[in-house]
Specification:
homodimer, 330 residues, alpha+beta, Ribosomal Protein S5, domain 2, Alpha-Beta Plaits, 9 helices, 35% helix
Chain lengths: 330, 330
């Protein structure tokens, strides 16, 4: 099935743009159980479910307005070249929603995540873009449907439609109509996320390509989907019973298993830098000393720490530049 | 089956010690396809086969002599405390071979591998000890049988009975009588091994425990035995056809897959230090520049490089402290 067919199912009538502009915000999200492997690369349908936590006020704000002539993109106050990866991906997504072929957009995006924090902005960006489209065209779609649309732009964007803990259901349908995100009805006020910056250099291989290459060549990938299924179930139990130790252990173990599948790919995909390994050992040393902190990592060299309010001091003592986020006290 | 039962099969009659002392040497070996997981921890029987290269003159020399009173151990010219791990493992192995319970040994061992090279000495040590026992007691056993005996001391010791490329057959028998090493009849004069020292600190977890913990807890371990089977077959083809690129790719991929299974263990076993990751990226950068070098790693932070004589210069330029070994020109 193609993206266009999915979109036509969700948006049977295309409405003209009713207002001058629309602005929407979506939070960044960090997966505690990772999305790593697609069963359908066209529709970004995952092999297995995943679970994330949204970062409150850290995310992307997107303003959309009709524009004559051609699309124009601005990011964090600067115009972005149309041939940049950012503009091309956004334009390709917007192509599906133009009321007429000569309709163009003015896209103004702001990331409230410091770029230096090393957080992926494509998830919050595509989520905010989808929300802004919904407003601009007056679709009045439900969040669940918007989550499906956002997924077509970037898989993990479907999770950025919600706050707090969010589960993305893998689904089984070829159309992906059952592959959407929804929030878990649990909050956790004293939970903290800490962003550890190791490097903000461009990655040598993007996460899309790394995911596909790992799936295609890593001899250990065969054991990954089952790992996720088990981790996801245990993580939901940990959240329901507010068992922080379990949550931390599973999240850290799941992230390491994901990186392990990449490290074993042929050739290897090693996002870790010397500083990543130093930080991993530092987290383990803190835990051995009784400061209960865990980490997760995405397709890059940076760490995201998980700890509780009571341990902020001992964590910040080790990681002095840490940016601390309180996902449930936004 | 117990070690004693295996030994009684191989040595039906126990002979008195016929000579005053016996000295033997065995080379260190580096696995290109790793031994990682036991089907029988008592007899050190592996889940899968493995393949190594012996390091010529780098290894262990052991002298055995009868001694009145109690055992005495010396390593590299220094007496070793009986309660040390070295003395206890050696004494436990020697227990199987004492003609009478009041027979004791004087054990004098020298490693010709610089300790700082970070090479495991238990393989060459137990291999040399087994060879010295064979001489001391006049067993006149074949190398294949000695390989079985050495395995009872330390699994990978069975490969150190031979020079050059050596295959350790996994075997199927409960007795392990079909789990021995034998040399491959191929040499490769311009092959070089380079020892990169990252750290000589004691490891936080020994390889025996790490192996067992990984097998028991790593969700990715399930895919390991099949990986080894495939790698072993391809490695033998690479050696037979003298395809260095293939040899390097498989050896590096196999080592990374082994480390990946450990990294994914719960809790994680991360032998890598910041310097290990720096060296891995340096190897990849050298390859990208046309200097064809690969690496392998054992249960520790150090790298062993694989390259050919023609590339010694470009490798040593990057790794200035490299100790270069020519396994086939000893």
């Amino acid at each position: 099935m193609t993206k266009r067919e999915v979109i036509e199912q969700l948006l049977p009538k295309r409405l003209p743009a009713p207002c001058v502009s629309a602005t929407a915000f979506a939070p960044a999200n960090i997966a505690l159980c990772k999305y790593w492997g697609k069963r359908d690369p066209e529709l970004n349908l995952p092999t297995a479910g995943s679970l994330s936590i949204s970062l409150g006020k850290l995310g992307s704000e997107v303003t959309l307005a009709p524009r004559a002539g051609r699309d124009r993109f601005a990011l964090n106050g600067k115009l972005v070249a149309p041939e940049s990866s950012f503009a091309r991906r956004a334009a390709a997504f917007l192509d599906f929603f133009r009321p007429t072929s000569d309709f163009h957009f003015e896209v103004t995006a702001h990331n409230t995540v410091p770029t230096a924090a090393g957080l992926a902005s494509s998830a919050s960006g595509f989520a905010a873009l989808t929300l802004a489209l919904n407003k601009l065209f007056g679709w009045k779609l439900e969040r669940r449907q918007l989550s499906i649309l956002a997924r077509l732009g970037s898989g993990s964007a479907c999770r950025s439609l919600f706050d707090g803990f969010v589960e993305w259901h893998a689904g089984k349908a070829a159309s992906g109509m059952d592959s959407f995100a929804e929030p878990l009805k649990f909050n956790w006020p004293d939970l903290r996320v800490g962003l550890v910056m190791i490097s903000d250099k461009e990655k040598s291989i993007g996460s899309r390509d790394a995911m596909q290459h790992t799936r295609d060549t890593s001899p250990l990938y065969a054991a990954w989907p089952e790992t996720v299924t088990r981790d996801l179930a245990e993580l939901k139990t940990a959240i329901r019973t507010r068992n922080f130790t379990k949550l931390g252990e599973i999240a850290e173990g799941n992230a390491l298993a994901m990186h392990a599948t990449m490290i074993a790919a042929r050739p290897s995909v090693l996002y870790w830098l010397p500083g990543s390994v130093e930080a991993i050992h530092a987290v383990h040393a803190l835990r051995a000393e009784g400061c209960e902190v865990y980490f997760t990592m995405d397709a890059g060299p940076n760490l995201k720490l998980l700890f509780r309010k009571a341990d902020v001091r001992c964590v910040v003592k080790e990681f002095s530049d840490l940016q601390v986020v309180a996902p449930f006290s936004a």
